[in-house]
């Protein structure tokens, strides 16, 4: 879907505050309510807007440790990757997972209460996945920037 300037403006506003009423959104964009609602609905139907969420402060809910885990798989086949993906998709601690090109096959991002939880995650979950050959973990010392809004 090719986005026009009005749609981009609507999306920018919704990324900052998805609780805006259609009236408030229309006022900020400079259009009447019905056309504004139609634009939003069109973007929802097209999958541009996937949903609406509440963004939490992870440290205030006890998830102060951010860990990146690089995973190298034993084999490179569709079956191995599919099995690995299914296991990872079912793990709540993994908030992001990417398949990569290069020496690392997958990159996992975790939010955990602390290093003890990382140890438990590794021993009780990750290292029990038979498709994994090698893992390397990096613990973030501090968060410098973490944005959820896409640059439109």
From TrEMBL:
Highest taxon of the lineage: Bacteria
GO cellular component terms, A-Z: cytosol
Domain HTH asnC-type, chain residue ranges per copy: 3-64
Record keywords: DNA-binding, Transcription, Transcription regulation
GO molecular function, one term: sequence-specific DNA binding
Gene Ontology BP, a term: response to amino acid
Pfam families: AsnC_trans_reg (PF01037), HTH_24 (PF13412)
Protein name according to UniProt: AsnC family transcriptional regulator
């Amino acid at each position: 879907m090719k986005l026009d300037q009005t749609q981009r403006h609507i999306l920018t506003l919704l990324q900052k505050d998805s609780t805006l009423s259609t009236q408030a959104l229309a006022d900020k964009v400079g259009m009447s309510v019905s056309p504004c609602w139609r634009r939003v609905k069109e973007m929802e139907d097209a999958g541009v807007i996937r949903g609406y969420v509440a963004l939490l402060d992870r440290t205030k809910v006890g998830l102060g440790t951010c860990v990146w885990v690089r995973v190298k798989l034993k084999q490179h086949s569709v079956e191995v990757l599919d099995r690995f993906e299914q296991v990872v998709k079912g793990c709540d601690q993994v908030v992001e997972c990417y398949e990569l090109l290069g020496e690392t096959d997958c990159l996992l991002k975790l939010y955990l209460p602390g290093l003890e939880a990382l140890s438990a995650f590794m021993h009780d979950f990750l290292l029990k996945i038979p498709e994994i050959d090698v893992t390397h973990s990096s613990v973030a010392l501090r968060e410098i920037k973490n944005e959820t809004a896409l640059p439109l």
